[in-house]
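Shape matters. Shown next:

___
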Amino acid sequence: VKLGSSQKLLTFQEIEQCNANDSTFERFRIKLNIFLGDYFRTVRGALPQGRRIQFKADDTVTEHRYIKVNFESKVDWCQYTDYLRCSPSFHGHARHDCVILRTSQQCDIFGRLLFLFTCSDKHLGFWRVREQPCTSSEIFSVQSIVRGALLFPDSARDGEHLVIDTIDTDMFLRVQEMHRDAGHY
């Protein structure tokens, strides 16, 4: 993955204040501390000297509004690239692209990019990247993004979306595999 369209540095306090009416950013810094602690315990084992990741309100992040994701096609095993946006204003309209994410349980799920950022823990020197879904506010590493996905709002059911699996053969095969893994058939 490669992040682009970097914005100015923001503190966690500024992010939480600017988005006070958006439940996505409720307890944003605390959720990130918990996610990173769990993530590094899973990936690397315990942190050096049993340290905990503890961002402060005045620590900064850099927002990004673009991400390039390379993925291997299930059709021909060649590498393809998705160019994804996460922007409050992209040609005059909000654009928050959808993705397929690989969870820590090795399952694929659908998500929407709401906020892409990098931050550095000054004490440990690690770089962090995160996407945050809406109200559930789960945190995922961008490394778990498999590829972009096309989800279309279901006009008959408010808040639900239809997965468009016919955009290409790779997407069709991935959705079929997700159905099979979920026990739908």
The longest strand covers residues 60-72. The radius of gyration is 17 Å. Helices lie at 12-18, 28-44, 169-181.
